[in-house]
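Sanity check record (used in CI):
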Amino acid sequence: MMRAGTFSIVAYDVRARQCGVAISTAMPAIGGLAVFARAGAGAIATQALINPLLGVDGLDLLRSRSAHDTMRQLLDADPGADERQLAIVDAEGRAAAHTGPQTHPWNGHRLGDGYAVAGNTLVGGATVDAMADRFESTPTGPLSRRLLEALEAGQQAGGDRRGKQSAALYVHGGRPYPQLDLRVDEHHDPVAELRRVHDIAERELLPFIDALPTRDEPEGRFERLMPGDDA
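Expected output for Putative Ntn-hydrolase superfamily protein:
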């Protein structure tokens, strides 16, 4: 049974048309099953008794429904809804979240303009409060940094009461592939390691991703890279 005590944030930057998820937990490889985002739809984190279908189906629903309506339709069809935790944000920045009554304490969520934070099996509610406060205090800047800083604040405030093991950061900017997909699958301090990997990716990977082919520019923009910088 894939049950995970977890803390996460989902967010949509309407101005930049980017959305993403940052998440951490005391189980391995959380980024593989709990994180979903698509810039034309929104972002979803599924946790507690994880159901990846909520993310898969939810992104399809978000193309034509609000975050709240999407959440209601997903949960109405899910026989395990009482054991789920779900955070959703849509492409207009509207947020919704669900914390099932059978998820492990401390459990709860917080909603704001363009984001939702949620957690279960936490040291305490200070984790989600710190995440929300940090995200709201950084209204500008790259979404990946804002998400990561919120995750760091949650870890500093207590995080998962069982310990630490994995973390992930996923950002989608409208292309058929993600702008950033970073995972720390097994580490004694996964959020700190995610920060280290992110800072390297920001310097060395993002310029390459920005030059990749798109539907509008199928040859890409590799001429902007220095000779020999291709992969």
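Helices lie at 52-62, 67-76, 126-137, 143-156, 190-204, 206-211. If this sentence no longer matches the regenerated tokens, the check is flagged for review.
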